[in-house]
């Protein structure tokens, strides 16, 4: 497994290990934790600017969401510009739009400067309403886009064989192969003198005078600046209550009639579906995504793939399902990402809350955080500041997500009490079970071997839940994920689930 799920993504064949740097030095200007688009882009930018950087990845480059994205590059976002105007005002909404333009410019410049072959293509997007309710949403989206300067044009036909009532086209979008892109940036980062250490787990950090001391599974380093490019920073802080973890599902199909749309496509369902085409190993594939839900809140995650496949088959002449995979992202309560210095720290930075726009916000994070470290300021410093507290903009959603976390604590405790014995576990199944007043996460392999773990997530003491699609234990509170033997797959937990031997019972 070279990404954080057992299902193989369309990009996974391009994931390759980097030469081990076991004897790395101990002092750096910047330590970057996380080898996805955010961490790699930021490390490259800072190293190129003259800083001495080390990039640490717990598994391999592209292991997390970058290896599971569908890699749409958009200047329109999951947070519509109308919503942004309503919550933050027109000036900040225009700045939000400018950040997307800048991000696309950064990607294009990185590709040009480093001659990266990553299948980058400029695209036009088509956004379509499937009923009258969605049509009203589209009117609202159009109005907001016009106010901030994002071009959207009404069209009469779309390239997708899906019945619709109204649609717009949006020029200036793009797509690429995300792993080819970050792999090339890693190599340029190394050529500039940077250090990459993969299979290196960051355990914790402490701030000591002018240094930040970072303890890892391969040694201790000291850095003047620390960046957590891990989707959500470890530890327990306010960011874990202002961001909610979600799972999204994707599949890649061949089509019998070879009628592959040239444009990017999006409907306005909730959750919405999205489409694009990419050629892998000389074969065109339609990539479709959707069926999003809060992490740990689907009783049968395998059904999400079934529902997505059935929906696509309604409209497309599907031949074969070539790939199916899922990935994780975080929803911020007020719709804007959190990029910058973590509140209460001196030189510790984060980038989280990207919604479904990870390629854009991961890229603009590299610009913002690099500017903050190099100059102390950025055009987007205030807009995306992790220190912002705007009760009016996000209060209702904040209460809802926080209440969900509290409810999960209670529901989980009640749930495990209902499970009476380990005998209820079938082969290939995972469950949280009760045994003599304690709760355990148990998975039984085919053949009968049992993996037994304490079910309490070490991060904030919530009970994990079984993800049948990715064969993992997922925490519904803050999105930590663990393998069947308890190893951390996804932060914010930095501690594995406690393993229990049968004789310990």
Structural description of this entry:
This protein is of the alpha+beta class. It contains 8 helices and 24 strands. The protein has helices at 37-48, 81-88, 90-114, 132-148, 178-191, 301-315, 358-375, 391-418, and strands spanning 27-33, 53-56, 72-73, 121-129, 153-155, 166-175, 195-197, 202-208, 211-216, 219-228, 243-255, 264-267, 274-280, 283-294, 318-332, 338-341, 348-352, 429-435, 438-444, 450-454, 465-467, 472-474, 481-482, 488-490. The strands form 4 sheets. Strands 3, 4, 5, 6, 11, 12, 13, 14 and 15 form a 9-stranded mixed beta sheet that branches. Strands 1, 2, 7, 8, 9, 10, 16 and 17 form an 8-stranded mixed beta sheet that branches. Strand 19 and strand 20 (450-454) form a beta hairpin. It is globular, with a radius of gyration of 22 Å. The chain starts with 26 loop residues before the first strand and ends in a 15-residue tail after the last strand. The relative contact order is 0.15.
Give a brief rundown of this model:
This protein is an alpha+beta fold. It has eight helices and 24 strands. Helix 1 runs parallel beside helix 5, helix 2 packs across helix 3 and helix 3 (90-114) packs across helix 7.
List keywords for this structure.
8 helices, 9-stranded mixed sheet, globular, single chain, 8-stranded mixed sheet, 505 residues
Topology:
Blueprint: E1 27-33, H1 37-48, E2 53-56, E3 72-73, H2 81-88, H3 90-114, E4 121-129, H4 132-148, E5 153-155, E6 166-175, H5 178-191, E7 195-197, E8 202-208, E9 211-216, E10 219-228, E11 243-255, E12 264-267, E13 274-280, E14 283-294, H6 301-315, E15 318-332, E16 338-341, E17 348-352, H7 358-375, H8 391-418, E18 429-435, E19 438-444, E20 450-454, E21 465-467, E22 472-474, E23 481-482, E24 488-490
Parallel strand pairs: 1-2, 1-10, 2-7, 4-12, 10-17
Antiparallel strand pairs: 3-6, 4-6, 5-6, 8-9, 9-10, 11-14, 11-15, 12-13, 13-14, 16-17, 18-19, 19-20, 21-22, 22-23, 23-24
Helix pairs in contact: 1-5, 1-7, 2-3, 2-4, 3-7
